[in-house]
Design brief:
single chain; 299 residues; alpha/beta; TIM Barrel; 8-stranded parallel beta sheet; 47% helix; 12% strand
Length: 299
């Protein structure tokens, strides 16, 4: 039975301990996963950008995927981050995710080396053909320096049947609209920007891979579900109520703000790995204010 990709997927943080070598805090990770499942998220996305995948060793990356699959125990989908700017490495990560029981893999557009569109097509097709899992293409040109053109995505869909979804973090609702309009049911579009989830669903996206849902999973699930159900007025109210929180989560380089928010709630330690750094006191105050304001006026 094909995997149904719809709803709220949480781009999981990777919690670290406050020690010189900043080891992964497995107990905190388990707690976050349990809380997400209790909030009825559609799925978890470990080892993406929010999971600080660039600073994880290969061993840590593999273990985070394994731990997430083990802890989820089939109660929610696990879309394993398997991105790299090396096609060989991305293949190895995708194949590991398949071996340990992930439901799908998410592969980011290769960063830094800035391949041509032909190179991007070949990258995704090679990774997709190396596994039987569904593949989510992750396009975030603001971080990668490369933008996967719509025409290239269409070619990938033709050449790799198991590419079934795209996480669109381009900040461009018109791009999402064009993908839905022209590719139809061939590929699912998920918003990669919390603040754009509602308008993207309005033009045919089927959900979001969310940062904010690390902190407010129940509330983000509700906003997404209302939008998908076509309950427009309620969806707008919930969306607008969440907007200040979405904004606060990106006041500094992500995931530093969302980790600070989780630390405020006692769920993790406020630790990010260099070259990221913890937020300034001004940013912390803004995060605290946004969360408290949302709690007071939550719809």
């Amino acid at each position: 039975m094909p995997l149904r990709l719809e709803g709220t997927y949480t781009a999981l943080v990777t919690p670290f301990r406050d020690a010189p070598d900043q080891p992964i805090d497995w107990e905190a990770l388990d707690g976050i996963i349990d809380g997400q499942i209790a909030a009825h998220v559609a799925g978890l996305v470990p080892c993406g950008t929010t999971g600080e995948s660039p600073t994880l060793s290969h061993e840590e990356h593999a273990r985070v995927i394994e731990r997430t699959v083990e802890r989820a125990r089939g109660r929610t989908q696990v879309i394993a981050g398997a991105g790299s700017n090396s096609t060989r490495e991305a293949i190895a990560l995708a194949q590991h995710a398949e071996r340990v029981g992930a439901d799908a893999v998410m592969v980011v557009v290769p960063y830094y080396n800035r391949p041509t569109q032909e190179g991007l097509v070949r990258h995704f097709v090679e990774v997709a053909k190396s596994v039987h899992l569904p593949v989510v293409v992750y396009n975030i040109p603001g971080r990668t320096g490369s933008d996967l053109a719509y025409e290239s995505l269409a070619r990938i869909c033709t050449l790799a049947p198991n590419v079934v979804c795209t996480k669109e973090a381009t900040g461009n609702v018109l791009r999402a609209q064009r993908i839905v309009q022209t590719l139809g049911d061939r590929i699912v579009v998920l918003s990669g920007d919390d603040a754009l989830t509602l308008p993207m669903i309005a033009v045919g996206a089927r959900g979001v891979i969310s940062v904010t849902s690390n902190v407010l999973p129940t509330e983000v699930v509700r906003a997404t579900d209302l939008a998908l159900a076509g309950k427009n007025e309620e969806a707008r109210r919930q969306h607008f109520a969440l907007l200040p929180v979405h904004d606060a989560m990106f006041l500094e380089a992500s995931p530093a703000p969302v980790k600070a928010a989780l630390a405020l709630r006692g769920l993790i330690r406020d630790v990010v790995r260099s070259p990221l750094c913890t937020p300034t006191e001004a940013t912390r105050a803004a995060i605290k204010f946004a969360l408290e304001a949302f709690a007071r006026g939550s719809v």
